[in-house]
Amino acid sequence: MAESTAINGTFFWDGKPNGILINEGKVLGDQASHVWRGYPQSVIYMTKQGEVKIKRINLAAEIILESQWAIGGLGIVTPYGYSPISEGFSGVYSDVLRTTNKTFMGYKKDENLIYLCIRPNSSHDRIIDSVNNLKLDFAISLDGGGSSSLKINDKVIVSGDGRKVNNYITIK
């Protein structure tokens, strides 16, 4: 049996993905977390040609024809800046900005590598510092807090708070 490496994925609500989520061309989460309030979401995705991109979108339909996979989150280092308010993470929805365990992923073009990271007990400013220290070209924050979980080579490194996590990013 092959060893498994995984990290928790995008936000979820009521047992379903609450954000853009595409796997092997199949849409699992069809809209941005706050599209119902008029806000797009930052999405990292890989094209069918193998190029990794980031784009702020409302619906999976905007990228489905070119995407092999995609995952939405809160853009933390992007070509269009860091603005939680512009993605709907304000008011009662700003809880994702609190200091807690933070899960994030980013891409480094010159290495052609995707980074999957958890930073314990952190603010968004601290994960932005981490992204900058890693020299990532762009990054998104994924579901954090009690959902933060990481398994490397079948060994649990971070276990979250025991809640059922709706989706994971796995390494093949």
Give a verbal description of the structure.
This is Phosphodiester glycosidase domain-containing protein. This protein has 172 residues and is mostly beta strands. It has one domain (5-171). The protein is 6% helix and 42% strand. The protein has one helix and 14 strands, in the order E-E-E-E-E-E-E-E-E-E-H-E-E-E-E. The strands form three sheets. Strands 4, 5, 6, 7, 8, 9, 10 and 11 form an eight-stranded antiparallel β-sheet that branches. A four-stranded antiparallel β-sheet has the order 13-12-1-14, with no helix packed on it. Strand 12 and strand 13 (155-158) form a beta hairpin.
Oligomer: single chain
Order of helices and strands: EEEEEEEEEEHEEEE
Shape: globular
DSSP summary, beta strand count = 14
Report the biggest beta sheet as strand number plus sense, adding barrel if it closes: 8 strands, antiparallel
- Our count of helices gives 1
